[in-house]
């Protein structure tokens, strides 16, 4: 029986990543060099191409002296941005517009004396930036952690999610927060990116239709890892593939239907190459989307 390769409808870069990568390409065409603090996007293949064109990923802000600088798609904490301005006056902002809106919302609610809850990964650059924006009256809640919030005496609370978090993890965290709520008022915002929600839903549906679900994306990418976790809820044969070369070593003999979806920072050319490799396998000639 011929194998079927079913490609998800939501693949390739999301709007925010497209914007960031295209902006970086134009800047590199103009200046021939460009600095960023941490990866512009969480995909090693994309970053390798940008570095080849002249991008420098720096760890210390002093390395940006006199060099055009681009703010990564996840945003930067305000204090770090001020330090960057001391090193260079050529600064481009590639912060995802959706992330920027959430940052402004966090800033506004914090100014109104709300205690801010940020549900997400404490080490993710997006959450790090938002914590700095929120100021001292803020706590980061790991999605699956058990924390007692009774010590927080603020009258008003506001809860936000990392934009790449899964809805299930956010709901679970909200439930735990609501068990310990001395606040007079609590406002819960759904700040998960609509693209992330759409792809998580598609991963869930596609995983139930296929024998194997391949999630294409960077291992550093939060939204890509969430897609893998989502797929595994209904299909244990869900795996993450970062590059086309990884596909060549896969043993696919027992899988008749193979689904392919991607993280938001995965270049569509990578996905097409993976489809080509799978389609050229002697037993895998039936591909549809």
Polypeptide structure, described:
The chain is an alpha/beta fold and 289 residues long. It has 3 domains: 4-12 and 194-288, 4-hydroxy-3-methylbut-2-enyl diphosphate reductase, catalytic domain (Cobalt-precorrin-4 Transmethylase, domain 1), CATH 3.40.1010; 15-95, Rossmann fold; 98-188, Cobalt-precorrin-4 Transmethylase, domain 1, CATH 3.40.1010.20. The chain contains 10 helices and 13 strands. The protein has helices spanning 15-31, 44-53, 78-85, 97-111, 125-134, 167-178, 194-207, 222-232, 244-248, 268-279, and strands at residues 4-7, 34-37, 55-58, 69-71, 91-93, 115-119, 138-141, 156-161, 185-188, 212-216, 238-241, 257-262, 286-288. Strands 11-10-12-1-13 form a 5-stranded parallel beta sheet, with helices on both faces. A 4-stranded parallel beta sheet has the order 7-6-8-9, sandwiched between helices. The chain is flat, with a radius of gyration of 21 Å. The two termini are 19 Å apart.
Blueprint of the fold:
Layout: E1 4-7, H1 15-31, E2 34-37, H2 44-53, E3 55-58, E4 69-71, H3 78-85, E5 91-93, H4 97-111, E6 115-119, H5 125-134, E7 138-141, E8 156-161, H6 167-178, E9 185-188, H7 194-207, E10 212-216, H8 222-232, E11 238-241, H9 244-248, E12 257-262, H10 268-279, E13 286-288
Helix pairs in contact: 4-5, 7-8
């Amino acid at each position: 029986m011929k194998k079927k390769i079913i490609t998800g409808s939501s693949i390739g870069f999301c709007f925010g990543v497209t914007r960031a990568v295209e902006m970086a390409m134009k800047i590199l065409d103009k200046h021939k060099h460009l600095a960023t603090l941490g990866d512009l996007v969480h995909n090693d293949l994309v970053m390798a191409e940008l570095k080849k064109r002249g991008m420098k990923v720096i760890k210390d802000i002093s390395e940006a002296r006199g060099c055009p600088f681009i703010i990564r798609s996840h945003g930067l904490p305000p204090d770090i941005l001020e330090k960057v301005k001391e090193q260079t006056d050529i600064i481009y902002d590639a912060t995802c517009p959706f992330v920027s809106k959430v940052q402004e919302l966090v800033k506004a609610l914090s100014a109104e004396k709300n205690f801010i809850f940020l549900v997400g990964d404490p080490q993710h650059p997006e959450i790090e930036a938002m914590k700095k924006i929120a100021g001292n009256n803020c706590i980061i809640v790991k999605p699956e952690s058990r924390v007692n919030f009774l010590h927080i005496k603020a009258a008003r609370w506001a809860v936000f999610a990392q934009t790449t978090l899964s809805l299930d993890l956010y709901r679970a965290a909200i439930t735990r927060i609501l068990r310990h709520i001395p606040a007079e008022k609590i406002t819960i915002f759904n700040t998960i990116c609509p693209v992330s929600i759409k792809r998580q839903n598609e991963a869930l549906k596609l995983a139930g239709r296929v024998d194997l679900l391949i999630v294409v994306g960077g291992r550093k990418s939060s939204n890509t890892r969430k897609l893998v976790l989502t797929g595994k809820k209904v299909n244990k044969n869900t795996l993450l593939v970062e590059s086309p070369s990884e596909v060549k070593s896969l043993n696919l003999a027992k899988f008749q239907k193979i689904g392919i979806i991607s993280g938001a920072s995965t270049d569509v050319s990578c996905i097409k190459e993976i489809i080509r490799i799978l389609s050229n396998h002697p037993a895998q000639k039936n591909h549809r989307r």
